What we know:
Strands 1, 2, 3, 4, 5, 6 and 7 form a seven-stranded mixed β-sheet that branches. The chain folds into two domains: 1-62; 69-238. The protein starts with a helix and ends in a 15-residue tail after the last helix. The protein is built from seven helices and seven strands. The longest helix is centred in the first third of the chain and has 60 residues, at 2-61. By secondary structure, the protein is an alpha/beta fold.
Amino acid sequence: MPGRGRNAVRSASEKSRRLYQSNTNGEDDQVSTLLSARQARVIFPMSSIIAALAGNSLPAHAGIGTVVPFEETRKEKFSGSIANSVVILRLKSSLRKRGYFQNKSLIATFKASDDLGVSISREFGDGQVIDVTDGAVLEEYIEKCQSADKKAVVLYGQDVDISANGEASQVLGKDLKSSENLLMEKLRDKLSEVTLVGGVVIHRSKSGGKDAGEDCFLPVAITCTRNGITTDIFEEVFGDLPTPRQTVSLKGL
Length: 253
């Protein structure tokens, strides 16, 4: 009996040990399963994100570094030129302080017509641009400004085209200096107030794609004459740009 009792105890102990190990192994398996599930939840989304980023890396950089012939030529040959829309913003900032508002001025151009002249007219005039390259029309313009008591804004200068492959044409138009002198002589003593804006309009190819965009302007001079006294406001409007500078003898200074 005593021997049989000890054997029974050992058998029960052995069963308990095997049961414990079985439970422990089960818990380990559960922990392992839980860890595997957690790792899957963490690793899978991260791998998905990396894959998505890797997959999108090329499209995200598409177009960066693409050479735009117009911009390359403009920066090289016409340093300091700016987009027409930026010209308008700069003019607004300065001329508003001098009472230039929409429908308060008559806009003229002493050069070939272009988009910049139209934009200036929409901002300060009535949307119309008067070509005063003809002497008789210039006289009519003066009379119209006088009778309507309007301020005058005249855009003068030259034009250049840049093709789709970046080739610049010859600069066309009357010499800036002579145009400025002629307009000063004709308008300064006949109008109560006139602003002259001179420079080179840079026309871009309108073929679309990477050539899409607006024309640019290389400002050379801007003066405001009130009651016969002329003020050079180039520094105020365009002075921060690396552009060439031409001046005219300013009456009253």
